[in-house]
Design goal:
69% helix, globular, two-stranded antiparallel sheet, hydrolase, Peptidase_M48
């Protein structure tokens, strides 16, 4: 979560990002004519591009301004006075003030995006503002529950706090990922899959990959795989059979089985732990560098001081901006391989291509462009997915399947 960068580098980053705004992709994929993107889709894509730039600028420049202008030190003294100089409480007060300032600065951007959304509900301004205020509850709760931990570690082990934080994060993240489908089920009331034909098709595909017993529930807003170990399960979209044909459902489930079979949620756990390790180490090193050279100017010489809060925030956001393209690229790779796995397992090329093509129209674009790919695209573009569905069928020419060995290995392991 953490890294430090100069203001000049941040401005250069945004100038570079602006060059990509509005760039879109091709209109052909694998011989399938893709309908032109609607004007509303192009306009909405541009809105998302610009709002990302503005909101990221706020998240980078607000803590930097607090750090360099002296206002961060003033807010720190105010927080210390209100907390009667209790350090943890001072950090909480500072964090709450910061979140309120950030909320106010981002509010016009959020409202502009709300007004620009073509399918927005006819909410009153008051109802919209109420929803925005409710969105503050989660970060406030997170600050109240979690901020004490890194502060305690910094005070107890100033030299190795980042290592201790990583060690504590790993089991916490493990418990959260294991428990995720359980509290999701409690909140949404998931139920076992009752469609016998669909269950039989899923079990057959799963058995082909050495997984004869698979947990399948229905009731989600989309189809995905959640949980780890004993809680790992496929959660099907509640209206899946209404919005997809039986052949498309087979491909969709086969796609999700890749996440299940290859343990992609374990990769998520590894990414979380690695992120905390690298981010906290960078914050520690950045803080030491800043304190040694500019400690007098910012009136702060130790990371546990509440005056260091803007430095931590800037480091966190700067690192997120830097690593986001790489993280998104990795996620797109995971999803691209899930499409490949799904095609190999189901052989539903025509159904998959029709499914992806059916998502076009409205606000969906065949290829939203380079900037969207760098900043928010978690999946390959629909043009890429259609192209793969059209062109990837190695079994027709007798070529080896990429994931055949995985399934055979699982099946042979099961038979032992």
């Amino acid at each position: 979560m953490f890294s430090s960068r100069s203001e000049r580098c941040s401005i250069a980053l945004f100038a570079q990002c602006l060059l990509f705004l509005g760039i879109t992709g091709s209109a052909m994929a694998g011989g399938v004519e893709i309908p032109p993107d609607s004007p509303s889709a192009v306009a909405w894509n541009n809105v998302l591009n610009w709002t990302w730039v503005v909101e990221t600028a706020i998240d980078l420049l607000l803590p930097l301004w607090l750090l360099l202008s002296g206002w961060g030190s003033r807010l720190a003294r105010l927080s210390e006075r209100w907390s009667s100089r209790r350090r943890y409480l001072a950090w909480i007060i500072f964090a709450l003030i910061y979140m309120l300032i950030r909320f106010v600065l981002r509010l016009p951007v959020e409202f502009g995006r709300h007004l620009a959304y073509p399918g927005r509900d006819a909410d009153t301004a008051l109802a919209w503002l109420t929803g925005q205020l409710q969105s503050l509850l989660l970060p406030v709760l997170a600050a109240l529950l979690l901020l004490w931990l890194p502060l305690l570690l910094i005070r107890k082990s100033p030299q190795r706090w980042w290592l201790w934080l990583t060690g504590i994060t790993a089991p916490i993240a493990l418990v959260v990922l294991i428990g995720q489908p359980l509290w999701m089920s409690a909140g949404k009331g998931y139920k076992p899959l009752e469609n016998g034909a669909l269950r039989s098709a899923i079990v057959t595909m799963a058995s082909a990959c050495g997984i004869p017993h698979i947990q399948i529930v229905v009731g989600g807003d989309d189809t995905s795989v959640y949980g780890l170990g004993p809680t790992n399960r496929v959660i099907l979209q509640s209206d899946l059979l209404k919005v997809e044909s039986p052949d498309q459902v087979r491909f969709t489930v086969a796609h999700e089985l890749k996440h299940y079979v290859l343990g992609d949620n374990w990769k998520a756990l590894a990414i979380i732990v690695a992120f905390v390790l690298v981010a906290s180490w960078i914050v520690d090193r950045a803080a030491r560098w800043v304190f040694s050279r500019h400690g007098e100017r910012i009136d702060c010489r130790e990371l546990s001081d509440v005056r260091a809060f803007p430095l931590v925030l800037f480091s966190v956001m700067a690192l997120c901006v830097v690593i986001e393209p790489g993280f998104l690229a990795f996620n797109r790779h995971i999803e691209r391989e899930a499409d490949r796995f799904g095609l190999e397992l189901s052989h539903e090329n025509v159904a998959a291509a029709a499914l992806f093509k059916g998502w076009l129209g409205g606000l969906e674009m065949a290829d939203p462009g380079v900037f969207a790919k760098l900043t928010r695209s978690t999946h390959p573009s629909l043009a890429e997915r259609i192209r793969m569905a059209q062109n990837y069928h190695p079994w027709e020419s007798g070529e080896a399947l990429k994931y055949d060995a995985v399934c055979r290995a699982n099946s042979s392991q099961l038979s032992k």
